[in-house]
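Q: What would this chain look like folded?
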Amino acid sequence: MALRVHICAVGRLRSGPERDLIDDYLSRFDKTGRALGLGPARIIEVEDRKGGGMSAEAPLLQGAIPKGAMICTLDERGTLMSSPQFSKKLCQRRDSGVNDLAFVIGGADGIDPSLRAKADMSLSFGQMVWPHMMVRVMLSEQLYRAASIAAGTPYHRV
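A: My prediction, written as structure tokens:
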């Protein structure tokens, strides 16, 4: 059984350098992870057209998360981990029978506390606040790196 990855994010990413990087890294993740039972990965974008902030985005994000998926929020208050630790965590989720893992990326104001409370885990890319569009790029690269580590390829050097 494969661990399907869903990146549930607020906002629409148009064509440009960020989109190109995400597409490249997720394509690499899918190719590298396929034999390992990791992937595929897909992005589900939601948009609050009325500008209601976190509280309006929370139900949209909740609706984007596949039923029964394990939820991991991307949040500066989350757990810091190394790339090898992240790879190990993904493989542990796969090995424990998790079919769907949803990474949740909030909008400019972050993730509503009610949705954060439903998360099974929370991941931080550091104490600095990153633009939510850049977080997508960073997560995509780390997914590819995690699959590369699990596959034993030389992409990740210690």
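The chain has a mean pLDDT of 95.
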